[in-house]
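User: Predict the full complex structure for these chains.
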Amino acid sequence: MRVEATTSRQPPSPRGVSRLRRLAAVLRAFWAVNLAEELQYRANLLASVVGTGFWLGTAVLTAAVFFRQTPALGGWSFWQVVALLGVFNAVAGVVEAVLRPNVGRIVEHVRRGTMDLILSKPVDAQFQVTFRRIVIWRGVDIVLGLGLTAAALVIGGRWPGIVEVVAFVVALAAAVAIAYAIWLGLMSLAFWFVAVENLSILFDALYESARFPVTAYPGAIRFVLTYLVPMAWITTVPAGALTGRVGPGFALVSALVAAAALALTRLLWRVALRRYTSAGG
Amino acid sequence: MIIRAESLTKHYRVKVRDPGLRGALRSVFRPRYREVVAVESVTFGIREGEIVGFLGPNGAGKTTMIKMLAGLLYPTRGRAVVAGYDPWTGGAAFRSRFALVLGNKQQLVWDLPPEETFLLNRAIYAVSWPDYRRRVDELVGLLRLEDVLGKPVRQLSQGERMKCELAAALIHHPRILFLDEPTLGLDITAQETIRAFVRDYRDRTGATVLLTSHYMADVTALADRVLIINHGRLLYDGALGALAERIAPVKRVELTFSREVAGAEVERFGVVRSREPRRATLEVPRDGVAQVSGRLLSELPVADLTISDPPIEEVIGRVFAGETGAGAP
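Assistant: Here is the predicted structure of the two-chain assembly.
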């Protein structure tokens, strides 16, 4: 239940440009602290490079094994699938660098009560729980992933035009936004059920399906991956836009899907906070 | 009044679960709920610059009260105005006006020196650089943090950490401090440092302080006024000294004798709280204490005599035992 104050001395809350400038300042401070934290664990850089290099090698080899049996996978050639694997790895890098260390920690904030401290600060709580940390070493995944995609384009012998590159950038940004929305949606459930960290495993399992173009799956599964759990938008559409397998119009649709997903999870987040503030102990 | 609460009420719905597997299953399919009263119809006002202590046993509703005033919990009924804002719709502007320190929760970044957290809060509260430097210098001086600032938080003692938590919470110069168990788990010296700092800070800045504590010493040393809560109800609102007079209108007389004295000889003068052969503690009515002391000195072999108020723990204990006896004035 909400109570209205009679003394409605509500000051103008910062809007527009000054609000953005404030958020940018907070972001800079978050990352300065974060860089200092991460520099204490420099060995992680080496582990990241070796681990990701190994993973990429295995993934490409597995694809190569498939392509010994078939000239195309869901209509995609070998080098197109390798380009997609690069995108898969780049988005996985964003998940590991930003989503898991931030959004994945909501559960802990709720359980240990530090959510109270976050909520008592004059900066949007969703912003705080989204951007507090970056595991910078996992940025290696993003670089190596995009590198693999570029290499696949060169070796595959089909260099994209400017329209395709723009469509790719739009679709990739949308892909990151969709992955974020799914994570935030899953982790918001912590406000109801508290112990939901295992839901991140659910994401990992679903994300595995994005390793192949969605067209490689039979109809029913393809429907699910496109419309219900929108994994198709995370790898198939960006890689497809870059390799010309998917028209540039799809990038725009992808941006709309991302906008809808973000709006929906923002709503869910607010409902969750409302529940937290009217229930919590 | 910088804080006003009117009939603030908070009820929780708690899932009731029978023990065992069967109970667990039933609570999944047919959940039953029980209303728990955390805070019931509490009304009070706090003036700017006051230090007010919430007293009460665990689960009395102290923390719920603070969380409601900080806008972290919606009340079931009632209203509050804090620093001119409605805590639940005041938004960022309201949240810049107060600081929240929770004794059992930490905002300092564990692996880094405390100053990194200060910088983080500087950005979050949009404090200008000159203000930031001036306040950090002041806080470091007051809390004697010079040697601590450069060490990672994980290497600090609990007392050092709490001092840094306080400093981090005050970077934005809040008008109101909500301190929930600020001395939890600290040793006596650290507790005293924190108390001295809070009082000093109030005197310098005129900030209003609302604190909860298990430790009676925190409250007796700091608070101008106490609110005693139990089972979510306000039992007493007023000065600690006045409480002792109302609830326990007695003085305590501690006696040391030059030779052994029989129990019967002492009992004539008042209620005996404790007795050894050569020592005794008596409780006598407040207004008769001078006369009784005179008689004790002339009739018994008294070597030493001190008069004091009964310990505040006991007074509060009587409030809880009586419940209805006190009532808010």
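The first helix of chain A runs from residue 16 to 38.
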